[in-house]
Amino acid sequence: xxxxxxxxxxxxxxxxxxxxxxxxxxxxxxxxxxxxxxxxxxxxxxxxxxxxxxxxxxxxxxxxxxxxxxxxxxxxxxxxxxxxxxxxxxxxxxxxxxxxxxxxxxxxxxxxxxxxxxxxxxxxxxxxxxxxxxxxxxxxxxxxxxxxxxxxxxxxxxxxxxxxxxxxxxxxxxxxxxxxxxxxxxxxxxxxxxxxxxxxxxxxxxxxxxxxxxxxxxxxxxxxxxxxxxxxxxxxxxxxxxxxxxxxxxxxxxxxxxxxxxxxxxxxxxxxxxxxxxxxxxxxxxxxxx
Length: 290
Ligand SMILES: O=P(O)(O)OC[C@H]1O[C@H](O[C@H]2O[C@H](CO)[C@@H](O)[C@H](O)[C@H]2O)[C@H](O)[C@@H](O)[C@@H]1O
Known about the structure:
The protein has helices at 42-54, 67-73, 105-117, 141-151, 176-184, 204-212, 234-250, 274-282; strands at residues 18-22, 59-62, 81-83, 88-90, 96-98, 122-126, 129-133, 158-163, 166-171, 193-198, 216-220, 229-231. By secondary structure, the protein is an alpha/beta fold. It folds into 2 domains: 8-98 and 175-285, HAD superfamily/HAD-like (Rossmann fold, 3-Layer(aba) Sandwich), CATH 3.40.50; 105-171, Alpha-Beta Plaits, CATH 3.30.70. Helix 3 packs antiparallel against helix 4 (141-151) and helix 7 (234-250) packs across helix 8.
């Protein structure tokens, strides 16, 4: 299923019992010509801080980037995060788990050799993975794919991902779905209703994981997806997150109270809380989205 994008005001708001999982590039942040050219609007940091508080810490980033890059980009925030598509994961208590890095020498050699021969490519080395970017030279895509596929012959346990203008080699066992499921087994995420927003094919495992547990998946931007909800672009997602933060701030604090059933009166909303809080309670219809 590949639904049409909703406007920001059509998407129900987060409920106080949500566990929020967010992809980074192309979802929270606009795509940029190079990985190091990405800019994070200061208002986004503020929104994420408010959401973290309102959701009792249940906000995590789930990204292909390494943890240290995410921390730098979101400074001073240091959120629970999964990096390198789940190869590394920092829980809410700060504990970091990393899968043992597989042998990537052949892959690195192949990527660097291609890069030296064909200007415009960029190799990104991470713990347990290698990315070969071709955004500056889209016509080189087939060369990137062929070189990495050849390097992956007889390399069981490694897999090739095709992301946005990038091929990435990573351990097959790591994916964003597993990372989200691991968070959901731990406090403060455990027992909450999962929502994951992402933009890329690498986010599809995460979408499937949250939807299989009755949660909500939001695809940001174009392209086929198993996510049942869609927003047009990262700006729309940032606006929606800001509206959620505002409504959750305004809603009466009542711990992890269950959301009202669809159609139920807006219990827990007050006159002071206003229509946004009422929309937050209506969001009980959101998880699963059927
Ligand atoms: O899972 P994500 O948070 O979406 O990370 C996926 C990859 O994102 C980065 O590359 C992408 O964003 C760059 C900056 O906008 C862009 O130049 C590039 O073309 C995109 O593929 C990052 O560099 C990778 O390490 C991530 O795996």
